[in-house]
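I am going through a labmate's work and have reached the protein record below. What it holds is a sequence and that sequence's fold in token form. Please read both lines and tell me whether the tokens look consistent with the sequence. Do not assume that whoever made the record got everything right. Thanks in advance; the entry in question is below.
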Amino acid sequence: MKTVLSKWFLPFSLTLLLISCNTGELKFSENNIQFDSISVEKTYYFFDIETNPNYSLQINFIYPVDYSSKQILNLIQQQFVSGFFGDKYGDFSPNEAVEKYIDDFIIEYKEEEDNYKIELDEFNAEEHEHDHDHDAEFNELWYSKNETFINKIIYNRNDLLSFVVYKEGYYGGAQASHNYINRVIDLKTGQRITEDDIFVLDYQDDLTEFIIDAIAFSNNVEIDELENIGFFDVNEIYPNKNFYVDETGIFYTYNEYEISAYVVGEVTIQIPYEKIRHLLRPESPLSEIAFR
């Protein structure tokens, strides 16, 4: 089974390959925090028969392993784990979360074995009844599943840490799914930074205008032309909490089908700090880079 990898995924894979070849812990000099990585490839076949449909999982997980405060390190690890695997895994250590996710998904996948066998037996019986004289086919690919999880450190300075999780999945449908999860962590507290931490009250309407303008600009069209190139109703676009930051600005990502058709793909736009300083809290965790 082939899946279509996004433009973001291809160079990212190379980055992780280089990281995985490096022995020992990974260290980013900007903040005094050290990282390590876990790489896993796992495949499970229905009834342990390799010619049957299978669930295939690839994980490349970068996570923090050392910081000046052990208490804050634990909180940062929780943010990495929950961002990568989902909130229900947030209380597990990185290694435990990897093992638990694999076990959970295989258990869930094995529950489909009986349905697969019933459908296959019914198809074979029908084939025999018609003496193989009809054009029906049994599509085993509908039972095959494939997942790839990768994360990447985007920004690691000024007591801020931005990372992005990329998930690609094929679940038996006609198309693979692609999903991007962004998080920003305040290394002084170990907590996730939210829109409410950054922006003043009643920021949504003004910020929405900047987001829509940025989407139109990045596509080289006017706002009223966005629907012509695959976007949905622009009046339904709003800040979606899925952002990361660096020294230049705030980046929002909208995933497939969120504001546009599948063919458009994910949409990531940048809003420079100088355009929205009037919407930013002077005392926010971003103040050092946003008001410099």
Summary: Residues 1-29 have pLDDT under 50 and may be disordered. The longest strand covers residues 54-67. Residues 193-292 form a domain with the Actin; Chain A, domain 4 fold (CATH 3.90.640.20). The beta strands are 26-28, 33-45, 54-67, 145-157, 160-170, 177-186, 191-192, 243-245, 249-254, 267-272.
